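Annex B. Sample input.
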Amino acid sequence: MRSASVAAMLVLAFCFLLIGLGMVRWELISLVIPLVMVLYLAYLLNRPPVMRVSCSRTMDTDRLQEGEEVEVTLRLCNEGEALDYLEVKDTVPTGAKVVAGREGFPLRLGKGEEAVASYRLGFPRRGYYKFGDLEMSWRDPSMLMSLEQRAAMVSRVVVLPKVEDLRRCDLRPSRLQARPGSVPSAALGPGTDFFCLREYTDTDPMRYINWKSSAKRGKLLVNDFQVERSGDVVLLVDARTALDGPEVRSRLLDLQVDAATSLASHFLKQRDRVGLLMLGEVFDVVPLSTGKRQFYRIFDELLSVRPAELRSTRGVGQAINRFFPTSPMVVAITSLEDEKIMTSLEELGKKGYDVVVLSPDWFALEEGPTDEGEALAQRMHRMRRKDMLAELARYCRVIDWDPGTPLSKYLMGGRASFARRA
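Annex B, continued. Sample output.
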């Protein structure tokens, strides 16, 4: 393959020839000879080699969390002729940052030789990241001849939202199902939480006998335990917003996605069934289920969500009745920017649903007030938000979340209720 330099020299030679013939100036025509000789000698002395390079791309992991790094390793093997100068450039995904090493580099690769190079990429934001082709190009020393080869290698990295440790979370479904779980119930039977001692009966297993207490009292006593059950939880994520500025909209949605991912991980670990109802351009539903696969189903849905315009929420109650008929606990993650979502949540609370509202304060994401007008607007927003949360707290459990504070602080025992900030 000829490079741009060859094309430029050919155009220049053609111009000299054309002008020389037109002006009948043989000195101009003679300038064509050295240009043609340079091209001929460049091709004769630097014949393009047979370029056949096999390559592969490996990563130490293809699934990581926001802010983490991944090491990419490139392996090249020359199966053709020797290459004195080879430029290699990997196509990194958009949004990823090279934090160590280089994705493009030159090297010399002899016949049958192998080369290994690596670099590290950082991923500051959640999402699917797809690598492009690996580009390789050979050039001769005169930079007049070149060869190119592209290696199509399918590589993808999944960047998970931040999953916060919520082991001390006090949110538990109020309605328990007849399935084993981690939530203590009012029923007595096989379990891990001790409840009381009672006299032995013929139907009690021998392993439940408390021999120490039986020896003290002179009669057989058995341990009774609280049965641990599980419940159903629906995460309602409100991706609708009317905020100005793509950065603030993106930060708010990232907070909601991180919270939903952390809560889904927590409830699934305690063996609850978890579902998802996404409010965006349309209603997206992930049915109730358990296990690690369910976490990745929810994650896939959260990963594709984008900020949407404010739309009606009239069908929220109908969607929950249709897709989640077991009266689950509803955890609504919403910034409460409009009164429509408040009305829908209040209706769910009136119908007897256990509704928990986790509301991040979007005003805290913006820069502080710069004049008296902005300071007055901020005070008015605080007062209005305080009244909204107080009204909503009549029917739901409300958590006023300051984005600058870790979510786990608000979900500790005794704090999952209406919290007023100073």
